[in-house]
Amino acid sequence: MEVKLSIINFIILFGAIQGFMLCAVLYQKRKANPLGMNYFILFLFSLSFLNLFYFLIDAKVLEIYKPLYLFPFPYKYLIGASFFLFVKYSFINKKNKVARKMDLWLFLPALLYALLHLYWFSISVFENSYRIARVVINSNFFRINEFFYLAYTIILVILALGLLNKKQISLKDHPKKIKNINWLKLFSKAFLGMLIIDLVLYATDLIIHNGQETLLFYYPNFILNSAFIYYIGYIGYVKPRLLSTGFSTEEINRLPAKSDFIEKKLMDLMDVQEIYRNKKITISEIALQLGIPEKDLSNHINEVHQRNFSDYINQYRVNKVKELINSNEGQKYTLVALGEQAGFSSKSSFNLTFKKLVGLTPSEYKKAQKSD
Question: Which residues pair with 91 in a beta bridge?
């Protein structure tokens, strides 16, 4: 039997190869969230196997040994279930062991599909013929199965988006984590869009050809599938942390209380004690006074105040200078002296920082206040 090769089925094949290679790479990066990443790897492997199988069909490779048409690997039904569980277990909860067992029910369609195909595959191997495959095709099983698989997967992706929306609301006060959830939502919406296009293309193909499917439907479908795998590959190689790092629900649940505790004590140091007026103050010294690790303080300032430590403390110093400029006592001193009182260590840093945060130099600001 002559193998049929074309540019299109090469694109489909390379999409599969890209996916398999990325599975191997991600397997090495799953330490942060092994459960979630295992499901993602299963999702990507099944998606890539889908490409590979239809490349083998289109290239006529399966004609060499026809029982392979009924190969009993339930790759289609693994795609949706593993995707949903990847999203779910991007939010790690070590105590949720019962839910993990219940999640196995999502693989029931895959198990039934595998057992049915194993039965047909055994008959086909025993007969070494295409007879049973032809019987199954003529029974419309594959057409019905295609609609069922797409509907099942679409429902699971919609449920995953619903889960992400709930998590996004619960993390509204934590911008960095919201950013990662936004990426997961975008990724899920792209996958959902691809599935809906597949469903429309398949239905259109059947309508146009009086209920008979053709490979014309599969070409745009699998080129789209390949593009999606390439996109996953780009993310996997360039930004692997987006895939491999999960969110700890225990950590998330502690964040609001912990953040409020840090903020309250930090405001006392800054607003009441005016610790920023110390020219040599460092983040490690402030963290020591707060009784928390330096990293926790840095993360708090980044997430709550949306700036780094240097900009955060300089904003207080600039505000103090503005307060002194507008006070009667402040008229007795030069601007440089006021900058030193506020905590700036040099004239140059004072002028540059003030200009950066206010948009005016100290002298321009003082003139503007006088004119008012």
Answer: 247
Instruction: State residue 306's pLDDT score.
Output: 82
Question: What letter represents residue 34's amino acid?
Answer: P
Strand partners for 92: 248
* Pair 336, 354 in one domain: yes
Give the predicted TM-score (pTM) of the model.
0.65
Q: Which of 245, 278, 311 is the last residue in one of the domains? A: 245
Please, which pLDDT band fits residue 167 given cuts at 50, 70 and 90? Answer: confident
Q: Is 1 contained in some domain? A: no
pLDDT digits (tens, 9 = 90+) for 196-210: 998 998 888 888 878
> Residue 371 — pLDDT band, cuts 50, 70, 90?
low
The pLDDT of residue 152 is: 96
Is the domain of 91 the same as that of 183? yes
- When pLDDT is cut at 50, 70 and 90, the band that residue 253 belongs to is very low
State the Cα–Cα distance between residues 147 and 153, nearest whole angstrom.
10
Which tokens go with 308?
Answer: 């780094």
Query: Among 215, 245, 275, which residue terminates a domain?
Result: 245
Together in a domain, 262 and 302: yes
C-alpha distances in angstroms, 360 versus 44, 146, 249, 356, 366?
53, 65, 44, 8, 9
Residues 236 and 275 occupy one common structural domain: no
* 103 touches 85 (CB < 8 A): yes
CATH number of residue 334's parent domain: 1.10.10.60
What is the end-to-end Cα distance of the chain in Å, rounded? Answer: 90
Domain count, the chain: 2
Burial class (CB in 10 A: 0-12, 13-18, 19+), 154: middle
- How many whole angstroms separate alpha carbon 270 and alpha carbon 284? 15
- Name the residue range of residue 355's domain: 254-371
Task: List the alpha helices (DSSP H) in the chain.
Answer: 7-27, 34-58, 75-88, 97-103, 108-127, 131-138, 141-170, 175-208, 215-238, 241-244, 249-267, 283-290, 294-305, 309-325, 335-342, 347-358, 362-371
